[in-house]
Amino acid sequence: MSDEHSEHVLSVVVCAAAPATHVETLVREALARDWTVQVIATPSARPFFNGATIEELAGSAVRSEYSAPGAPRSKLPEAIIVAPATFNTINQWALGISDTYALGILAEQTGLEIPIVVIPFVSEALAARTPFERSVKALRAEGVSVLLGPGGIRPHPVHTEAEHVSSFPWLIALDEVAGMTGFGL
Ligand SMILES: Cc1cc2nc3c(=O)[nH]c(=O)nc-3n(C[C@H](O)[C@H](O)[C@H](O)COP(=O)(O)O)c2cc1C
Question: Is the CB of 122 under 6 A from ligand 1?
């Protein structure tokens, strides 16, 4: 966990869905709420945003790979936000697949009972698939807060994602984290 006397570390896991182009919104607001932010991106998410801008803001590297053996490790966070979360990452995470750095972090840190908040960004067609419904249920059963449905995001009609990027509800993730940790209100 974070050193309670110095900093409160928030990991932001970014997946390859359209709202990732605006992840700066989340990073800025988290910093304004006094979080120390470390950003982890899936390899597919890297082209969606300007990594140098995020690194300058957060003051740390955007990570998509494990450290080399013996190199310094990332800090264990006080909380994690996964946003936007893709169909792919949600399903792999729920199954315990760990073939990206982001999935590896989620696999292990779910087991540490670190508060985790997820905002999926999926079409209605993807959200209605049985594997996805099963994954959301499984993650919730492990204590993960998936902000989908009432009080969270609603899946969008197929091929309308561009219309929903600007209204992606980044801040409800921070509010939920504040409720779970008591920090960042
Ligand atoms: C421009 C673009 C937009 C995409 N939007 C979404 C999306 O909204 N939701 C989703 O689940 N996948 C979306 N995808 C597909 C994912 O990027 C793809 O499944 C990828 O393998 C996910 O990798 P990740 O889960 O490791 O980030 C999009 C892909 C592209 C190229």
Answer: yes
Hey, what CATH topology would domain 8-178 get? Rossmann fold (3.40.50)
Distance of CA 108 to the CA centre of its chain: 14
C-alpha span between 129 and 151 (Å, rounded): 21
Is 127 close to ligand 1, i.e. is its CB under 6 Å away?
no
Confidence of residue 93 (pLDDT cuts 50, 70, 90): very high
Report the distance separating Cα 81 and Cα 10, nearest Å: 8
CA 20 to chain centre: 10
**Per-residue tokens: 137:** 């249920």
What is the per-residue pLDDT across 152-171, written as a single tens digit (0 to 9) for each?
999 999 999 999 999 999 99
pTM beyond 0.85: yes
Domain ranges of the chain: 8-178
Which atom of ligand 1 is least distant from the CA of 45?
27
Report helix, strand or coil for 63.
Answer: strand
Determine the residue type at 106. Answer: L
